[in-house]
Specification:
It contains 7 helices and 2 strands. By secondary structure, the protein is mainly alpha-helical. Helix 1 runs parallel beside helix 3 (92-105) and helix 5 packs antiparallel against helix 6.
Length: 181
Amino acid sequence: MLMLYNYGMPRVNPEPQSIVPLAPRLLIVGGALIVIGAIGAWVFIANQKAADNKAYQSALSRGQALEHDQKFTEATTAYQDYLSKTHTSTHKREIYFQLATVQGEALNYQGALASYQAAARFPPGKDHAIILALAYTYDALGDKAEAIAYYQQAIAGLKQDKNSRGDDATSLQQRIQELQK
């Protein structure tokens, strides 16, 4: 070992370090970079979600206001604009459902059918509201077989729902009987 003197005090010059102690430092730096990258990705995703929520609320408010004023073509355009600009939205299901509702009110049952089916592709899939909407839409289109099938699915869902009233299932059963005549 070489002794160095600084202001009269001996100082030991450390021996050159091997590459082994450097490895843990590289792991720490690499881990820190991964954490920084993950934080950056999280911030980006959070900002994307906030922007998507804002766009969703805007499209929904505009579409519902137009629907209230019975401006169905403009409401349809508002919903379709949102859907065309948003690729990873968590709100697509709701917008497709709203779009289908407007299309049904405008007597565009084929469009409503396509939009309800599109809504059903997003989680949770064909829930009670979509099943019932599909039943009504097939009924309006005059497709008795499909309408009956969906009414039956809706009745089965109502029987499992503890909050449903018995008269809901009864009215659907009556509609099935009318269609079977």
